[in-house]
Amino acid sequence: MLAIPNLVEEVHGIDPLNIPPELLTANQPLILKGVARNWPLVQAGLTSHEAADAYLRSFYGDKTVGAYFGAPEIDGFYFYNTEFSGLNYKAERPRLDYVLDKILEYKTDPNPATFYVGSTTVDVCLPGFRAQNDLNIPFADALVSIWIGNKSRIACHYDAPDNLACSLVGKRRFTVFPPEQIENLYPGPLDFNPAGQQISMVDFAKPDFEKFPRFRQAMAAGQVANLEPGDALFIPSMWWHHVEGLDTLNVLVNYWWRTVPQFMGPGINVLKHAMLSIRDLPEKEKAAWKILFDFYIFGDQTRAAENIPPAAQGVLAPMDDMLSRQLRSWLINRLNR
Question: In the sheet where 223-227 sits, what is the strand order?
Answer without folding.
Answer: 77-78, 152-157, 240-245, 172-177, 223-227
